Amino acid sequence: MSDTLLRVEDLRIIYKTDMETVYAVNGISFSLCRGKTLGLVGETGAGKTTTALSLLRLLPDRIGIITSGSITFDGQNLLTLPIAEMRQIRGKRISMIFQDPMTSLNPVLTVGDQIAEALILHSHTRKKDAHIGQKVDEVLSMVGIPPSRKNEYPHQFSGGMKQRVVIAIALACEPDLLIADEPTTALDVTIQAQVLKMMRDLKERLETSLLLITHDLGVVAQTCDDVAVMYAGEIIEYGTTVDIFKSEDHHPYTVGLFGSIPNIRSESARLSPISGLMPDPTKLPEGCNFSPRCPRCMDICLTEPPGEHAMGTHRIRCHLYTERRG
Questions:
Q1: For residue 167, what are the CA distances in angstroms to 25, 143, 171, 248?
Q2: Are 142 and 199 contacting, i.e. CB atoms less than 8 angstroms apart?
Q3: Which range among 89-93, 142-146, 234-238, 244-248 has the greatest average pLDDT?
Q4: Taking 90 as the threshold, does the pLDDT of residue 195 lie above it?
Q5: Over the stretch 96-151, which tens digit does the pLDDT of each residue have?
Q6: pTM confidence score
Q7: Is 10 exposed, middle or buried (0-12, 13-18, 19+ CB in 10 A)?
Q8: Using 50, 70 and 90 to split pLDDT, how confident is the model at 326?
């Protein structure tokens, strides 16, 4: 059995309408080993959620189009599977925690029924039997919710408890891969820490691989084994967590992300936000996508897309390293 559970190669995705074409994901490649956590980091609009939805083939019909590349999960190319087989993988072998728990839950079903729905779908039974009820209790206990609350409705839970219910639904069938899309965005800081610790503990207990999508480098440092920094549909830096947090070599965008993190140990330290905005995905720059915002932009950056330069496990897509090593 291969150690690599998920491999994405040269994935390109567009959103096409009658008015325009949005170039959302532009040739990304990454892999995820069994039992490991990969952090996908970047600003809003970088293409992170589009990447996650493509893994489950949940892009909008006729608008979201995968134009090239492959997504290989446990030896199978998910892009060539019949939709009936893909439905068997969704929820059972690959699950996703969506961004907002407030809108992820059905307000007219009890939380127990919503967990049971996933179990019934993948156990091929037609009704909620004793075994399903026992599993619902077990899953709720696993995420720290008393099973006695399974007959309550989402509006009776706080934001943090709703997120625990969403995680319980995602983990009900003990998937091989869990995709968590900004799982703590809507929560306050203390609840964020609790949810992240719970996810780490459950991942280790169930030996699940985790793709964590976030814009928070602090969350990445606590949780991830490997990190992919995404910008305008491209992975511009990739490496182990040690590579990203300890190396002196970084893409200027990654440097900007670190400069945007508050330093609570220094009263005089000031934030250094990245100037400008993400480029229009319908009209990407001719050269490097980051060139309009880059403080170290060179003439070549305006006309030629940069190649990828590897330093062991650490890979950076930037002309600065072409110039240094060319």
A1: 27, 8, 6, 36
A2: no
A3: 234-238
A4: no
A5: 998 777 788 999 999 999 999 988 887 766 566 778 889 999 999 988 899 999 99
A6: 0.92
A7: exposed
A8: very low
Here the tokens at position 136 are 């619902």
Class of domain 4-93+173-325: alpha beta
Task: Give the tokens for residue 309.
Answer: 């330069």
Q: Where are the domains of the chain?
A: 4-93+173-325
Rounded to the nearest 5°, which phi and psi values hold at 3? -75, -25
